[in-house]
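Notes to self after the call with IL:
- keep both proteins in one doc
- input above output, always
- annotate only the second one for now

Protein 1:
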Amino acid sequence: MDHVITIRPGVGTAARIVQSRHLRFSRVTTTSPVLIVVKFGRKELRAPGFQCVLGPGDAVAISQDQVFDIVNMPGPDGQYQADWLVWDPVLISGFVSDNANSTIIDIAQDLKQVPDEFSHSFAVALDAVRQPDNIPHAIAVHRLNEVLVWIDSFGGRFGQRQSSRTSALVRRLILSSPDANWTASAIVSTIAMSEATLRRRLAEEGMALSELIADVRMLCAMQLLQSTHLPISRIALDVGYESASRFAIRFRRRFGFAPSAIRGHQRRGNEHPKTALSEPGI
């Protein structure tokens, strides 16, 4: 399987996280509902009111607009791997639960060791995203909806309402094009808000605009480092840094380690077209 992030409009986004070192990522924000299934190694997630440890074959369904501290740990073979799946918002809003005992996932739901049938549904859903030329759109939608039914059978479903926090709104905007020259005036012209109101609301949420822009870019870079073979110099450009050295300094300041630490000793230099981003990988 190619080590890429695949977005299929109207269906969803899929990718595989690969790491070669034991690393901790602090304050990782989700912007869409996501399902993660661990293949090798272990994953720890911690948030106020939630924590879990996942091993091979374990799955977790995470709600949107959540913030986690995450540790990814390679297994005995020296590698951590996990696949993740994000649904197009239309599929989430259109899903109807048949489980009277199902409730909306508040933060995340630890699905633990999922049955083989669940794993198969997840695998074919990933294929549906990755193979648009071979799998018709209607079949792809059906496959991703089947995974939602599986999650619902475990007693949870994703909510439709996005956070009303200004920082969440701005985060989504920046995520749509992290390499753009984001300024306060550019942002307020899109979200119909005065610059003074924008800065005041972000301050009330404990965030400065410059910090928020940098945070989204670093989380995007983390995703690209985990889920593609793009060179670090290219990733720097894709998240708005012309200087790879300045990018590396900012990344180390944010996470506490160099960008190259995620890949360990991998030095793949394959060129790829610019990668669109949908959800910071975790």
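Protein 2 (the one to annotate):
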Amino acid sequence: MKLKLGFVGLGKMGQALALRAIQSGYTVYGYNRTKSKVDSIRDRVEILPSISDVVEKSDVLLVAVTDDEADEDVILGNHGISDYIRPNKMIIDFSTISPIMSKYINEKLKRKNAYRLEVPLIGGPDKALRGELIALIGGDRSKYEEMSDLIKTFAIRTIYAGDIGDALSLKLAFNLLVAGYAELIAEGLAFVQKMKVDPRLFVYLINASGYKTEFSEIKGQKMLVSNYEPTFYLKHMKKDLGLISKVADKYNIYLPVHSALWSTYTAATEYGLAEEDYSAILEYLLKINKLKE
């Protein structure tokens, strides 16, 4: 018999993961702190009124929330998972949080004799629905091996990174690359437009070269027509850059390009683009450079 899964956190990614689990034959229960966000999936996911109910009914708990504060709250806060979890029960935490917070949560859970794997994901909700994510795993290897079939429900590729904190360090490094790539394409588009060159030629050039990526092929085309429908919110990219700042400050890591990206994504968020896709960094640059009203 397949495991009963309890999802805590049903935003865009949490919903996609829950629906993928249902498609794969799992029984799924869900809880979300903001009740209105789950209205669209109530007909497919059994939404429970409290975390305690999810813990009670589920064999494995899967957490997908936004940031350090939310993760700490749903796991360690009042009426959080740790208040109800039984010994030897497993938490798979998909949230992108700081390695520092992840280590702290695991230390606290040890007192409950509960287990937790950090499993940050590469890819958006569409890939989650198709089971085509990349999963990075940090934590006890034997526990990962026990949970590998479940994790592979969502991921076409899994990478075991090592101890708690290691997978999240990899994920943040990857998102630093992604933020930089989006920023550089946006700057290139702003530059050629200021020089009165057709920006479509710039995107065509990238995609005809060895620097073509899924981003340049898909989002590059959307950026040309100001389509910033979010697969990953700009505010979440800013959040991840902030997590990198926190870790870099603690471990005294010099990251000059990151500092510039943090400044630009922060400014774009304050400019009103927080709820747009992170590729909307272009919109900010166009307005700052007086290329758009």
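Annotation: Residues 140 and 146 are 10 Å apart (CA to CA). Strands lie at 4-8, 27-31, 46-47, 60-63, 90-93, 115-118, 121-122, 133-138, 155-162.
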